[in-house]
Design goal:
CATH superfamily: Spore Coat Polysaccharide Biosynthesis Protein SpsA, Chain A
Protein name: Glycosyl transferase
Structural class: alpha/beta
Shape: globular
Order of helices and strands: EHEHEHEHHEHEEEHHEEHEHHHEHH
CATH topology: Spore Coat Polysaccharide Biosynthesis Protein SpsA, Chain A
CATH class: Alpha Beta
InterPro entries: Nucleotide-diphossugar_trans (IPR029044)
Strand order of the largest sheet: 1-11-6-9-5-2-3-4
Keywords: Transferase
Largest sheet: 8 strands, mixed
Helix content: 40-55%
GO molecular function: transferase activity
Strand content: 5-15%
Length: about 400
Amino acid sequence: MDFYQNGIITTLHNLVDRPLEEMEADLKKFSKKRPLGLVLPSLYSELQTPALKTIVEELKSVDYLEEIIIGLDRADESEYRHALEFFSVLPQNVKVIWNDGPRMKAIHKKLVEEGIAPEAPGKGRNVWYMIGYVLGSNKVESVALHDCDIVTYDRSLLAKLIYPVANPQFNYDFAKGFYTRIANQTMNGRVTRLLVTPLIRALQKTAGEVNERADEYLSHIDSYRYPLAGEFAFRKGVISDLRIPSDWGLEIGVLSEMKRNISSNRICQVDIADIYDHKHQDLSAEDAKKGLSKMSIDISKAFFRKLAAEGVTFTEEGFRSLKATYYRIALDLIESYRNDAIMNGLTLDVHKEECAVELFSENIIKAGKHFLESPMETPFIPSWNRVSAAFPDIMDDIIAAVDADMQQYAK
């Protein structure tokens, strides 16, 4: 039985097969004192997938949510109309933010002109606007976030994810989901296994040994079993000061912000699924602007930015040393993963694993080069505290825009 507490944050395990109905009854009771919400970042293309159809079907049976907010990206008018119809089957109070609509574009243009909004579209920007909506609507006290491409979704995932920040007897402000990434009889989660874990340990050797604050930060991130999982839950009080990256560094950025803003005893990670699978990204070794190649560069930069803020000085020579240290640690880990796979009757293609490590090691250098060449880059989206200080009515404007869109375009 795995009940081990490692690292510096609490791990909430799935120790027994607790009936879902029992957990949902608890959440229904909690929601009377602490209203609960869910935010879903979605591409329009995901409405065509079996994954999102299953998610909507499962959410129909969830009676403890006060509000569901969907951030819709890459949708024209007819597609937005279809999205309103698609999500209208949900019994909860549902809001669909049409990020590409004229009203939201006008709000976005105003914020960009003031230099307080992310210009590039993507998941980070989508999540950021949904956070603004949650803060403005003021209808929920705790909110969960998960992706819309989870192939193996069932509603127990949501119940487990939001439970730690819903239960009034717990003092957690933030919960991070984790799970085993096994599908088709092989190990998934390559970026976590082959980049993040060995990179953290390489950074501990090269930066953590000479910088106590850097070592403390790296130990914090290394405490998470699956730091790149896209499932989070927050109490509302911690999201108004949240500064997140707009690129693939989103998940690491959120964990970094939690470390910066709240104490470790108010953070937990929770086992939310026995089986988890979602849309897979290609390695894209030939194009550093796509797939796992771009992801690895963005994530590496997220670490370098954070460590620089902790006082770590990076140099070209330092990045070459980091690459060499990472490479050795990552290759050693492949053997561990291979043996773990064999013990469990799984397959693991060692050649593909080593190809990924070679790509990631080159991308660490590319990320380091970009970091050194762009010292004035502003990687984080400003917090909503700052945005509302510049535009006190901005959250009301967003809510009004969403309501007007839904009234105008709903069938």
